[in-house]
Design goal:
The structure holds two protein chains of two kinds. Chain A is of the alpha+beta class. Chain A has four domains: 129 residues, Beta-Lactamase; 104 residues, Beta-Lactamase; 88 residues, Helix Hairpins (Orthogonal Bundle); 146 residues, Heat Shock Protein 90, CATH 3.30.565.10. Chain A is built from 13 helices and 17 strands. In chain A, strands 2-1-5-4-3 form a five-stranded antiparallel beta sheet, with helices on both faces. A five-stranded antiparallel beta sheet of chain A has the order 7-6-10-9-8. Chain A starts with a helix and ends in an 8-residue tail after the last strand. The mean pLDDT of chain A is 85. By secondary structure, chain B is an alpha/beta fold. In chain B, 58% of the residues lie in helices and 12% in strands. Classes of the chains: A alpha+beta, B alpha/beta.
């Protein structure tokens, strides 16, 4: 190979390398551009040109500052200055470009100042990535976050976030307003500080159990509980909780609504209803009494009249034996009539239930618990329903069974009013017993019956200061009228259990 | 001329009804009993002092309705109400409508008999007044129009001369009319005549 040939080959090879670099530069998936020391572009690949919407020749008329969005220029210049002064080797900047059509595009620039080699001037070399989409997503996320923050900040309900130890991570202004604490007094503190004493232990146990088992024992949407303000005042709340897992940690966010006013309104309605029921019952009783009086007074009047007439005739020595006989016969007939009326009234009062229907015991229990809701709340009774599903129906008088249940539940509540050192829990249970009867039990954690357990069913026996002593005695005869039994037994460790059975309705299968 | 007094009983309870009849018969009263107000209305009432012992609660027309009905028929027989359960508003209504007594069953026999006696007395008085007025009216109607005119002027306090002037006739003629009218009216004096005309006039009003 000649020298000339060898030189030519050398040139060819160089051209090949250069061509390869040029092709790589032009086809790079990322924008690449070069500018002279003064900032004039002299090279820009396809991605960069497309990003800014300029042709190559148009771009070479401009400096990098010309295409930089006005507000971002100063920061850019500052970095350039630092680089020129040798304070750094290269820099990175996220900035907006003004495209040819005037729209903005976000770019992430990695910029280096390439030193001049062999007398050549130094120049700027920048790699530019279009990050518009990422920026838009970020902005959208920030917007969403801001929106949620605003919702939480302005919400009228208290919004509180908790960590897995039940410590408060966040509390919104409504929390301050409702509970009376400053946010600083709440952050890092246990949630139980917002609860009355009697709920704290229950919360701790329930929360731990949930973390361990994942089983919720209360409804997380709209459960009514009791809150405690900084000043010690307790008030009804409705809470809803949600759970979020973040970096392997669980965060609970709760919404707590002060429902004092709602409760007050409900109570007013309930009182009005109770009063109405009482009055209408009294009215019925009054009417009954009046009609009894009328019924009995008729024969009594006849007896009086007939006897008086006889006495008058006798006084005048004018009483004929047949007149006397007829009068006495009428007197006897009217006496008999009066006693028949009395017998009918007695039968009516202790009537065997005329209104026997097929009933779902759980439904009857549900109705009574609704009626008693106010009583539970007022006396801070924790109600536990343990109702067996698929119970056979029973044949019974709905109102009488409601009366019995009301009576037992009220007794249970009253037995717990003195209890302060443990939760006042009332269990209402239903199940099928060994003989296939439906068994209903009301258990309380009250003071218990002690040695009196046998006597409570005796008429006029009472352990209460204002009791009549008739409730359990009547309840027992009502249940016996249904073919069932009612008895009491001690609850462990505290309180009493009152249980009764009702035979399953014929033809039903358990 | 006047018949024996009659007590009417209306009660839908047969034993109360018959015992009332027996009680009142034992003191010599004549009693007629009915099981409903309608049954009593079917009967032509006798021309004798009478009263009504009426149960408030009746089938069909109630006692209080019946009281109104009788008043509407211009029958002013005194009423004694009896009731199995007297409530105050009901008895107030009955008494306001003119009942003699309101007795709650069972009542003392004497209370009923007293009430009946008062009621019959009241009816007797009423009947006498009614009779008197109708007699007076009969006499007054027997006067000629001229005599009636003269009498009305006499009663208004005018002297014979003044009457003659007003009627445009002689004083003597007035005297004749006047004495004939006094005779027909069976009035002994002008004062008595004034009373008679007063009774007649006041009876026109209810």
């Amino acid at each position: 190979m000649s020298h000339a040939e060898s030189a030519a080959t050398h040139v060819e090879a160089r051209q090949q390398v250069e061509q390869r670099w040029r092709t790589a530069f032009e086809n790079s998936a990322i924008g690449i551009t070069m500018a002279d020391f003064a900032g004039h572009f002299f090279a820009a690949n396809s991605v960069f040109r497309t990003m800014l919407g300029y042709t190559e020749s148009e771009l070479y008329q401009l400096t990098f500052l010309d295409v930089t969005y006005e507000e971002d220029r100063e920061a850019n210049e500052e970095l350039v200055r630092e680089l020129v002064e040798g304070k750094r080797q290269h820099f990175q900047i996220e900035k907006r470009y003004r495209r040819k059509d005037g729209t903005l595009v976000w770019g992430r620039n990695d910029v280096a100042l390439v030193p001049g080699i062999g007398g050549a001037a130094p120049f700027w070399f920048a790699v530019v990535e279009d990050i518009t989409q990422r920026k838009e997503e970020e902005s959208a996320r920030r917007y969403t976050e801001e929106k949620y923050r605003l919702v939480v900040e302005t919400a009228s309900d208290a919004v509180i976030s908790l960590d897995e130890t039940s410590a408060i991570l966040l509390a919104n202004p409504a929390t301050t307003r409702i509970f009376g604490y400053d946010p600083a007094e709440l952050i890092g503190k246990p949630l139980t500080m917002l609860m009355p004493e009697f709920l704290r232990k229950l919360h701790e146990v329930g929360f731990k159990r949930y973390l361990a088992t994942g089983q919720r024992h209360i409804n997380w949407q709209g459960t009514e509980l009791v809150g405690r303000r900084k000043n010690g005042q307790e008030f009804p709340v409705e809470i809803s909780f949600g759970e979020l897992t973040k970096d392997g940690h669980r965060v609970f966010t709760g919404f707590i609504r002060d429902i004092s006013e709602r409760k007050q309104a409900q109570r007013a309605i309930q009182n009005a209803q109770a009063e109405l029921a009482r009055v209408s019952r009294l009215t019925t009783m009054g009417e009954l009494a009046a009609s009894i009086a009328h019924e009995v007074n008729q024969p009594l009047t006849a007896v009086n009249n007939n006897s008086s007439a006889c006495l008058r005739l006798l006084a005048n020595q004018n009483l004929q034996p047949d007149v006397l006989r007829r009068a006495l016969q009428e007197i006897v007939a009217d006496g008999t009539r009066a006693s028949a009326i009395v017998a009918r009234i007695r039968a009516f009062i202790k009537k065997t239930p005329a209104e026997k229907n097929t009933l779902d015991v759980n439904e009857v229990i549900g109705e009574v618990l609704v009626m008693m809701a106010h009583g539970f709340e007022e006396n801070r009774i924790l109600l536990q329903r343990e109702l067996a599903q698929a119970l056979p129906p029973v044949l019974g008088d709905r109102v009488q069974l409601q009366q019995v249940l009301l009576n037992l539940i009220m007794n249970g509540i009253e037995a717990m009013t003195a209890v302060t050192n443990r939760p006042r829990t009332l269990w209402v249970q239903s199940r099928i017993d060994e003989s296939g009867d439906v068994l209903i039990a009301v258990r309380d954690s009250g003071t218990g019956l002690g040695s009196e357990s046998d006597r409570v069913f005796t008429p006029f026996f009472t352990t209460k200061t204002n009791g009549m002593g008739m409730g359990l005695s009547i309840s027992r005869s009502l249940i016996e009228g249904h073919g069932g039994r009612l008895w009491s037994s001690p609850n462990s460790p505290h309180g009493a259990i009152f249980s009764f059975t009702l035979p399953a309705a014929a033809g039903s299968s358990a | 001329m006047t018949q024996a007094p009659v007590v009417f009983v209306v009660d839908d309870d047969p034993s109360v009804r018959s015992s009332l009849k027996f009680l009142m018969s034992s003191v010599g009263l004549q009693v007629e009993s009915f099981d409903s107000a309608d049954a009593l209305l079917q009967r032509k009432l006798p021309d004798a002092p009478s009263c009504l012992v009426l149960d408030v609660r009746l089938r069909g027309l109630s006692g209080l309705d019946f009281q109104r009905e009788l008043a509407a028929r211009n029958c002013h027989m005194p009423i004694i109400f009896i009731t199995g359960h007297g409530d105050i508003p009901m008895s107030v209504r009955a008494m306001k409508a003119g009942a003699v007594e309101f007795l709650t069953k069972p009542f003392r026999d004497q209370d009923l008999l007293d009430a009946v006696r008062i009621a019959l007395e009241k009816d007797r008085g009423r009947r006498e007044r009614k009779k008197e007025v109708s007699d007076l009216k009969e006499r007054f109607d027997s006067l000629t129009p001229r005599e009636q005119k003269v009498i009305s002027l006499v009663v208004s306090g005018m002297l014979n001369k003044q009457i003659a002037d007003q009627l445009g006739t002689a004083e003597n003629t007035v005297k004749v009319h006047r004495s004939r009218a006094m005779e027909k009216m069976q009035a002994q004096s002008v004062a008595e005549l004034v009373k008679m005309i007063d009774k007649l006039e006041s009876s026109v009003e209810p």
